[in-house]
Amino acid sequence: MTVSFDFTGKTLLLTGAAGGIGREITALFYDAGANLVLLDMDDAALKDIAAGHDPAGERIAIMKMDSSSVADIDAALALAKDRFGGVDYLMPAAGIYPEQLVESMTDEQWRQVMTINLDGVFFLLKRALPIMRDGGAIVNFASLAGHRGSYGHSHYAATKAAIISLTKTLTLELGPRIRVNAISPGIIETRMTGDLLRTRGEQLVSSTPLGRNGQASEVATVSAFLCSTAASFVAGEVIHVNGGLFMAG
Ligand SMILES: NC(=O)c1ccc[n+]([C@@H]2O[C@H](COP(=O)([O-])OP(=O)(O)OC[C@H]3O[C@@H](n4cnc5c(N)ncnc54)[C@H](O)[C@@H]3O)[C@@H](O)[C@H]2O)c1
């Protein structure tokens, strides 16, 4: 797929950078000239990604971190400020998707998903604002699950519904300085959906009007659109990237 953007001189800070979607966002933004601050728990993967794109470390800075840790977030933001003077685009993409029915879910299991998928996003968004440059953009990662629920993933779906709501309130509070939008991916082939695809893959494809699952690169292009000047009047929007599997009213 050839889609070109120009983010020369702009800086993207991305959590979950070693994930399936994070890797594609990294590749697209790096090729488009951006500086990148890549954050994830998986240090080895971060090092591989950085070495693959930017062995000299000129436009990519990496840091192993837990996106739900305030101390780690503070350190990551200090890195972004030190290396690139601030942040233009912010994408909290780190997330977990464990399976557990409500009946047998422990309070700890519920809390862990809230902590990583929701608290961590708030901790980062709030703390990044002082170093975000005017005209910047935030792209949040919601999910199909946040709109219609998800069997066996009540905690995950609840956090993603909250992200949709948070996106709208942030739009009200941060405009016109910063645009805020969200992407709701459907079934995208990454490590996150591996188990789901093994058990329900065929059924999901047959329910998808486009007749296939999505690729991470197809989420990355939408994230780039939302940061770009092509989306200069798009704010508070939630863009579904799901091949028609779910069509919001
Ligand atoms: N893949 C899909 O179909 C799909 C669908 C809807 C929404 N999403 C959302 O898109 C985003 C990216 O998903 P993906 O498919 O790339 O998932 P993925 O599992 O491939 O990647 C997630 C990344 O987040 C990192 N991570 C998890 N917890 C972390 C923590 N506490 N601190 C730092 N890093 C942490 C993991 O190490 C991993 O690299 C997530 O927010 C996810 O909920 C994905």
UniProtKB/TrEMBL annotation:
Keyword Protein biosynthesis assigned to the entry: answer is: no
Q: Which residues form a coiled coil?
A: none
- UniProt keyword Oxidoreductase, yes or no: yes
Known Gene3D superfamilies for this protein? Answer: NAD(P)-binding Rossmann-like Domain
Which top-rank group of organisms is this from? Bacteria
InterPro entries in the record:
KR_dom (IPR057326), NAD(P)-bd_dom_sf (IPR036291), SDR_fam (IPR002347)
Q: Where are the transmembrane segments?
A: none
Ketoreductase domain: residues covered: 10-181
Short name of any one Pfam family annotated for the protein: adh_short_C2
| UniProt entry keywords in alphabetical sequence | Oxidoreductase
Family from the record: Belongs to the short-chain dehydrogenases/reductases (SDR) family.
Q: What is this protein called?
A: 3-oxoacyl-[acyl-carrier-protein] reductase
Q: Which organism is it from?
A: Arthrobacter humicola
Which gene produces this protein? fabG
